[in-house]
Design brief:
The structure holds two protein chains of two kinds. By secondary structure, chain A is α/β, with parallel strands linked by helices. Chain A folds into two domains: about 220 residues, Rossmann fold (3-Layer(aba) Sandwich), CATH 3.40.50; about 100 residues, GMP Synthetase, Chain A, domain 3 (2-Layer Sandwich), CATH 3.30.300. Chain A is built from eleven helices and 21 strands. In chain A, the strands form five sheets. In chain A, strands 4-3-5-6-7-8-9-14-13 form a nine-stranded mixed sheet, sandwiched between helices. In chain A, a hairpin with an 8-residue loop joins strand 8 and strand 9. The mean pLDDT of chain A is about 90. Chain B folds into two domains: about 70 residues, 2-Layer Sandwich (VC0802-like), CATH 3.30.2130.10; about 70 residues, 2-Layer Sandwich (VC0802-like). Chain B contains five helices and six strands. Chain B has a six-stranded antiparallel sheet, sandwiched between helices. In chain B, strand 5 and strand 6 form a beta hairpin. In chain B, about 30% of the residues are buried. The chains are: A alpha/beta, B alpha+beta. Chain A: One of its GO terms (molecular function) is nucleotide binding.
């Protein structure tokens, strides 16, 4: 199901013409209204009138998360404060939060993009959507909320947490679709089990999951445990929130990027050079319709790949693969690029569940070493030494086969790997270079 | 007769073994027999205790990785060739011993060995058919 047939299936040529027109307009506007951009463009020696084709985009400088922090809270806003009707912010785990604003039109655009997202997941009028993304400064909850209301679904704004109540409401209100983070979906499954509720017997048919990186193995696990389709979505508050890109139910293979609102590039995270389609690199967005806080070539740090082949759903937008990790998480071990998410997939495949783990990188005799600590849960435990050793060996073998480097796997006791309140810390790099 | 063995995953760190035994002791659990199998990184402590259910729950509450396994306890004649006689029965029936360990102490004419087999039922049957007594859980826990 396509929400906005006209734009979502726009022929490539028309789409690119639209992008260029919007980009030129944007560049003129930020140059005139945001001193930060004027200064950056001047330093790079580029004027708005230099943008004559889409490929001129690369003449423009990048914008980074640090730029948002340096201009905290409202320095990058391109409209007067009285036109800003909503303010959101990221969690700010590593410093001041990054603040973003929305005009009335931005909110409308955002709702439209999330309406596309839900419709692509098969959620429509008549559906009961339990929205378990957090409401508040975080963009997930309200972003999903407005989009689902726009398509006419019945929205339950339950927000995150309170898991027993989530299950009760799911049973009593006839929830047909759920939106939350994928790890919370697995959490809810455990709570349902404790309550003796079989999620497969409930009318829930689809889950719209995002806000954190997850693997295809995790998708399979959720789909089996819940008896639903699990759809991946992508977004980040700096760009707009959820609704930047979404999977379709027909293909479940890569997320369609809303290219009429965002121009996408893949760059080499080291050199900043644009990479051709299909190559793995950092995804960069230029928001061509946002009014309150438009961003030019915003570096997401997310590593992925673009898929240009047309999708069977009929949408013409280019797709992005699941995010494989972040450029700041990428490890180079003996010259090989390694992402924690790859280790995660291997661990999940081993037993069907994801244990807590920690990757420790060190250097011995000028050679990088990698050790993977894996917490032994009851699913992993055996009273026989040889079975535990076989488990270590099989993980080591898979790492060697899939990533191509030799790692040592060490089983450790539960809860010995430090837990964090926010994003899990997966890597300790002891190398001093 | 099957009896319940508790097994605990322990990292090779000083003090961990003490912690397990201390928690059990403080909760009035008496250890009847034990064996510790280890590698360079970790070990598995296997225990026969007077109240396996309680021990299991207490260890779980204290966030140890703990498992329950069926093992069998066999009375072995306390004389030269006593154990060999038992092992012969197992060999003749193609039964493989995963691991075994001796009971800590018992005064009398029989020693007690704990066996873990991959095919527990088949092992019990073979031993019983050859006149070897396997002990019930209650007998062992109360010893």
């Amino acid at each position: 199901m396509i929400w906005n047939e006209e734009y979502e299936t726009l022929p490539r040529e028309a789409l690119e013409a639209l992008q260029l027109k919007r980009l030129q307009h944007l560049v003129e506007r930020v140059y005139a209204t945001v001193p930060f951009y004027k200064k950056k463009f001047d330093e790079a020696g580029v004027k708005p009138e230099d943008i004559k084709s889409l490929s001129d985009l690369r003449k423009l400088p990048f914008t980074t998360k640090q730029d948002l922090r340096d201009n905290y809270p409202f320095g990058l806003f391109a409209v007067p404060k009285e036109q800003v009707v909503r303010i959101h912010a990221s969690s700010g785990t590593t410093g001041k939060p990054t603040v973003v604003g929305y005009t009335k039109r931005d909110i409308k655009t955002w709702a439209e993009l999330m309406a596309r997202t839900f419709q692509a997941a098969g959620v429509g009028k008549g559906d009961v959507l339990q929205n378990a993304y957090g409401y508040g400064l975080f963009t997930g909850g309200l972003g999903a909320h407005y989009g689902a209301e726009l398509i006419g679904a019945s929205v339950i704004p339950i927000s995150g947490g309170n898991s027993k109540k989530q299950i009760m409401i799911m049973q009593d209100f006839g929830t047909t679709a759920i939106s939350c983070t994928p790890s919370y979906a697995l959490n809810l499954y455990e709570v349902a089990q404790e309550m003796g509720v079989d999620l497969k017997k409930l009318p829930v048919k689809v889950g719209v999951f995002g806000a954190e990186p997850w693997t295809n193995e995790m998708r399979k696990e959720i789909e089996e445990k819940w008896g639903i389709d699990a759809i991946d979505i992508y977004g980040l508050s700096e760009v707009i929130g959820p609704g930047v890109a979404f999977e379709c139910l027909e293909a479940k293979n890569g997320m369609h990027i809303n290219e009429d609102h965002f121009i996408v590039e893949i760059i080499d995270p080291e050199t900043g050079e644009p990479l051709p389609y299909g190559e793995k690199g950092e995804i960069v967005f230029t928001t061509i319709t946002k009014e309150a806080i438009p961003l030019i070539r915003y570096r997401t740090r997310d590593i992925t790949r673009l898929i240009k082949e047309p999708c069977k759903c009929g949408r013409t937008f280019v797709r992005m693969e699941k995010v494989m990790g972040r450029s700041d998480d990428m490890l180079i071990i003996r010259g090989v690029n390694v992402f924690p998410s790859q280790i995660e997939s291997i661990l999940m495949e081993t037993k069907g569940i994801l244990p807590h783990y920690l990757i420790v990188v060190d250097r011995e005799n000028n050679l990088d070493t990698m050790e993977v600590l894996v917490e032994v849960s009851e699913e992993f435990f055996s009273d026989e030494i040889k079975k535990l050793q076989a488990l270590e060996k099989s993980i080591e073998k898979n790492i060697k086969e899939i990533i191509g480097i030799t790692a040592k796997v060490r089983l450790v006791e539960p809860k010995t790997i430090e837990r964090s309140q926010g994003k899990a810390k997966r890597v300790i790099d002891k190398r001093s270079l | 007769m099957k009896i319940t063995q508790i097994s605990i995953f322990i990292e090779n760190q000083s003090g961990r073994l003490w912690e397990v035994c201390n928690i059990l002791g403080e909760n009035g659990i008496n250890i009847r027999a034990l064996s510790l199998a280890d590698t360079s990184d970790f070990g598995i402590l296997r225990l026969i205790v007077n109240d396996p259910e309680k021990a299991y729950n207490i260890l779980k509450e204290n966030e140890f990785t703990v498992g329950k396994t069926d093992v069998i306890a066999v009375e072995v004649p306390d004389k030269p060739g006593g154990l060999a006689q038992i092992l012969k029965i197992l060999r003749d029936n193609n039964i493989n011993v995963e691991y075994m360990y001796a009971f800590v102490e018992r005064s009398g004419e029989e020693a007690i060995m704990i066996f873990r087999f991959d095919e527990t039922e088949k092992a019990i049957e073979a031993l019983n058919n050859n006149g070897i007594k396997t002990l019930k859980g209650e007998e062992i826990y109360k010893l």
